[in-house]
Amino acid sequence: MDWICRSFDDLCGREVYELLALRCRVFVVEQACAFQEIDGRDTEARHLMGWEGGRLTACARLLPAAGGEPRSIGRVATAPEARGTGLGKALMGQALRILLAEDPAAPIALGAQAHLAAPFYEPLGFRVVGEPYEEDGIPHVHMLYQAATK
């Protein structure tokens, strides 16, 4: 797996195309959820991409802290044919490694689909904060990663 993390302005046309294609495949088509996937935040983000054999198989969007909100990880997606291989955990491991190397003390937020909170995100160190909410017809929970301070 080749991991690449780039700001939006440093992405080439093919990378933008592949990112949007994978995200639409997962979030719009697979989840049968009509929503504005291109939400105007990609230009302020860095995009973590996992490439295997010239194909994008995993991606996540790393957003900086803004407006009093902590930095966050979002648009976490793996290609359906790559699921069950540990790729999702590897993707999140890469995202956490990048963000923690920059500032190990700053919290990291994410909005998780509720059914993934306990089995997927909690073992990585995220905890649920606040009440569940619905986003685009799908139950979600707000989660936060805060590195232990000693």
Would you give an account of this structure?
- The chain is an alpha+beta fold.
- The chain has one domain: Aminopeptidase (3-Layer(aba) Sandwich).
- It has three helices and seven strands; from the N terminus they run βαβββαβαββ.
- Strands 1-2-3-4-5-7-6 form a seven-stranded mixed beta sheet, with helices on both faces.
- A hairpin with a 2-residue loop joins β6 and β7.
- The relative contact order is 0.14.
- The model has no long low-confidence stretch (mean pLDDT 94).
Helix-strand blueprint:
Elements: E1 2-7, H1 13-30, E2 46-52, E3 55-63, E4 71-78, H2 87-102, E5 108-113, H3 114-121, E6 126-135, E7 138-145
Indicate the radius of gyration in whole angstroms.
Answer: 15 Å
CATH class assignment:
Alpha Beta
Order of helices and strands: EHEEEHEHEE
CATH topology: Aminopeptidase
> What does the overall shape look like?
globular
Count of distinct structural domains: 1
Number of helices: 3
Largest sheet: 7 strands, mixed
> What structural category arises from helix and sheet content?
alpha+beta
> What share of the residues does DSSP label as strand, in percent?
35-45%
Quaternary organization: single chain
In which range does the helix fraction lie?
Answer: 25-40%
Measured distance between first and last alpha carbons: 34 Å
How would you name the CATH homologous superfamily?
Gcn5-related N-acetyltransferase (GNAT)
- Mean pLDDT equals 94
CATH architecture: 3-Layer(aba) Sandwich
If strands are numbered along the chain, what order do they take across the biggest sheet?
A: 1-2-3-4-5-7-6
